[in-house]
Write a structure and sequence with these properties.
The protein has 191 residues and is an alpha/beta fold. It has a single domain (2-190), classed as P-loop containing nucleotide triphosphate hydrolases (Rossmann fold, 3-Layer(aba) Sandwich), CATH 3.40.50. It is 58% helix and 12% strand. The protein has 8 helices and 5 strands. The protein has helices at residues 14-25, 32-41, 45-54, 62-74, 91-102, 118-132, 140-162, 176-190; strands spanning 4-7, 28-31, 82-85, 110-115, 167-171. It has a 5-stranded parallel β-sheet with strand order 2-3-1-4-5, with helices on both faces. Helix 1 crosses helix 8, helix 4 (62-74) runs parallel beside helix 5 and helix 6 (118-132) crosses helix 7. The longest helix is centred in the last third of the chain and has 23 residues, at 140-162. The structure holds adenosine-5'-diphosphate. Residues 10-11, 32-33, 36, 53-54, 57-60, 65, 86-87, 89, 93, 136, 146 line the site of adenosine-5'-diphosphate.
Amino acid sequence: MFNLILFGPPGSGKGTQSENIIAAYGLQHLSTGNLLREEIGNATPLGLEAKRLMDQGQLVPDEVVIGMVRNFIEARSAAKGFLFDGFPRTTAQCVALDALLKENGNEINIVLALEVSEEELVKRLLGRGLTSGRSDDTNETIIRARIKEYHDKTTAVATYYAQFNKVVHVKGEGTVDSIYADLKQEIDHKI
Ligand code: ADP
């Protein structure tokens, strides 16, 4: 199995680049944001609670997210590998993911970290909010709260994987194609 984490702040292009990568390498796309939005769309109890937190730019509790990820992985045991997008977001999620993969002798092979300046992130997210229907993308205060959550809690994910030398930093500004070419080069080194 080849398992990749696409890492970076909200608006760094994880979703866009994920589409390119999964198509090229035949990986399963696991976006916890998408899974949570599905729960919201189905108005499940989990979705209702998650929406309240997401609308404030806060993270959903680790247990909830880890449970969703476990179900997703266990339902796809024959996969060639996974691309994790928006997960893990805390150190506890990193530890849980490593344990989950290890149950079947697998591991994270590479963490690709997209680097984008804060002003560019806010610009992109407000732009996305005009058409995406995502309520967390329409308000600059919420966007800045998400970026703050990223700095407070999620940058620890890069620190966690850096101790295993798994993190590669890639510039996330430029054209979609040029950024994809850089990501592809790093994946091809590792695969
Ligand atoms: P973005 O990266 O643009 O913020 P996502 O779709 O990845 O968008 O996530 C949207 C929201 O869903 C986050 O702000 C957070 O509230 C919640 N969320 C997504 N993934 C996780 C996670 N792994 N842990 C906790 N909360 C999460």
